[in-house]
Specification:
Length: 139
């Protein structure tokens, strides 16, 4: 069974896109769950308590020494920063897909439906911006 060079590239590209989708889906789920749990007005920022709980769990389950605890804390903080950076890098692509999708949806609606649709999207955008602003700080 032989495959042309282009066939393998196409398959690898599809596989890569799928893997990226899985990773971003998992990341999105984590952000969603943080949003559902929320935070108290006087409590730590969203994500802080989850990271601290995760660190405390690792300390307890693995019996980390103080030196290991600091190393693990640094690794978790660096990893968080990498995820935030990735999210920031991917945001324009998500926004472009969202914009194109909305254009396509509007094209099938009546003018009255378009007005309602535009209002719905405006409210969704405000909520997304509020979540982004009140969520984990980005560097």
């Amino acid at each position: 069974m032989t495959f042309r060079n282009g066939s393998w590239r196409a398959r690898l590209t599809v596989l890569g896109v799928f893997a990226l989708g899985v990773a971003l889906g998992a990341l999105a789920m984590e952000f969603y769950q943080q949003g559902v749990r929320g935070r108290s007005p006087t409590g730590p920022p969203r994500g802080e308590s989850a990271r601290e709980r995760h660190l405390q769990y690792l300390i307890k389950e693995l019996g980390l020494t103080p030196e290991q605890t600091e190393q693990v804390r640094r690794i978790l903080d660096e990893t968080r920063q990498e995820f935030l950076q990735l999210r920031n890098e991917m945001r324009p692509r998500f926004e472009d897909i969202r914009r194109r999708s909305r254009e396509r949806l509007r094209a099938v609606l009546t003018p009255e439906q378009q007005a309602k649709f535009d209002e719905l999207m405006r409210r969704m955008d405000e909520e997304r911006e509020r979540h982004r602003r009140d969520g984990p700080k980005e560097q």
